[in-house]
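To illustrate the input format used throughout this study, we show a single complete record. The first block contains the structure-token representation of the backbone; no residue identities are included at this stage. The design step must infer an amino acid for every position from geometry alone.
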């Protein structure tokens, strides 16, 4: 796969490195194959090889590592190489001088692998400095993420309802993948130098078209871009989140959706119940979340007023760990009201009716509205309700609803 300009339309052409720039033999093979395809290297800029479109020709390329920090080789050495049949093409900043020979009889610039291995000393130090800088940046990003998690004041319910799913795991995954690729680069360079110092010459030609490291690098960049620039555009402060998918089959919730059902709570006729806002979402901290609004339709169709104005808006959270339930409960209480909530004793028959017991049950009444925050194990429920039932007497129903 070639990138950049279409070589059939333009004389100038550019292409990204197909492999790591430190894979000397593979880069040389890539340049030689490009020459045979009719693209002659002009130089390297911004991570790309720049080519002129010429006739197909066979030639050899050699990448000589810099022996010191310089932008071009010594003119005397350029003249010497020209006499040996090698043309100076350009310098890849901080890494290599690039040479080309159209003469198949021209002698190699490096004939002793041991000496060639010593020539990589500066490049090794340059790579080590770059790797150290990259790892430092990764460490800073990891530290910032950890600090944000430990000191952040964002309520858990806000993170569950408004944060992009899997954003933080993908963040850590990209950091770990970047560290992994950096270590592979260092390992590859160390193995190359050890091989040369052992007297083993570079293996040429060397495959470069199926570099899985290059593909992983591109995948990391795509994931990084999506996580931090594209996906956040779909955030919404609405409740429920606008990017959640539908949890209903027509006008009723799908099987498995947890919600307070007015038919079971108030005993209203089935044909009088309507649903709205049936939504669900998956988050790394909450594998299941459901939002469901249910109300009783007045038989004459004039509005939501029949049967004591029964209405229920349920938010249900099944958390990854039970230890998160008290945290979410606290945040929901703070969100609902600062005062007026009374914690009921779950040991009493009032709230322990039915199979199992609730871990906590909070209730508040304001006019005709009642609000409940209840938890059992890793399940938490938040309910806003208007109707004839005193929710303080419905502890058994909530306990059954929140059973695993």
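Output of the design step:
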């Amino acid at each position: 796969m070639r990138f950049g300009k279409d070589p059939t339309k333009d004389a100038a052409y550019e292409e990204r490195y197909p492999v790591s720039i430190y894979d000397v033999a593979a880069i040389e093979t890539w340049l030689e194959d490009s020459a045979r395809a009719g693209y002659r290297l002009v130089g390297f800029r911004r991570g790309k090889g720049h080519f002129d479109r010429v006739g197909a020709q066979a030639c050899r390329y050699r990448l000589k590592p810099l022996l010191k920090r310089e932008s071009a080789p010594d003119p005397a050495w350029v003249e010497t190489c020209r006499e040996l049949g090698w043309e100076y093409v350009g310098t890849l900043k901080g890494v290599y001088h690039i040479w080309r020979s159209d003469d198949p009889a021209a002698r190699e610039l490096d004939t002793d692998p041991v000496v060639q291995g010593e020539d990589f000393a500066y490049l090794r130090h340059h790579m080590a400095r770059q790797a150290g800088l990259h790892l430092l940046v990764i460490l800073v990003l990891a530290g910032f993420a950890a600090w944000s998690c430990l000191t952040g004041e964002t309520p858990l319910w806000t993170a569950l309802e408004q944060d992009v799913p899997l954003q933080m795991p993908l963040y850590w995954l990209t950091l770990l993948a970047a560290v992994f690729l950096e270590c592979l680069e260092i390992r590859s360079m160390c193995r190359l130098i050890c091989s040369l110092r052992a007297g083993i010459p570079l293996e040429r030609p060397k495959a470069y078209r199926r570099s899985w490291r290059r593909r992983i690098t591109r995948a990391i960049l795509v994931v990084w871009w999506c996580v931090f620039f594209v996906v956040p555009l779909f955030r919404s402060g609405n409740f429920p989140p606008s990017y959640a998918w539908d949890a209903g089959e027509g006008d009723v919730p799908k099987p498995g959706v947890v919600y307070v059902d007015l038919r079971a709570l108030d005993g209203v006729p089935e044909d009088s119940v309507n649903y709205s806002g049936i939504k669900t979402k998956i988050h790394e901290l909450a594998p299941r979340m459901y939002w469901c609004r249910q109300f009783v339709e007045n038989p004459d169709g004039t509005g939501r007023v029949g049967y004591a104005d029964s209405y229920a808006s349920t938010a249900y959270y099944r958390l990854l760990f039970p230890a998160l339930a008290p945290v979410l409960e606290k945040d929901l209480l703070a969100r609902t009201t600062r005062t007026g909530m009374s914690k009921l004793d779950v040991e009493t028959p009032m709230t322990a009716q039915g199979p199992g017991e609730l871990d906590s049950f909070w209730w508040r009444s304001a006019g005709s509205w009642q609000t409940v925050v209840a938890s059992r194990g890793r399940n938490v429920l938040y309910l806003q309700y208007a109707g004839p039932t005193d929710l303080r007497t419905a502890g058994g129903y909530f306990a059954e609803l929140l059973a695993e």
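Structural context for interpreting the output: The chain is about 35% helix and 25% strand. Confidence is low (pLDDT under 50) at residues 1-5, 235-243, 302-308, 345-355.
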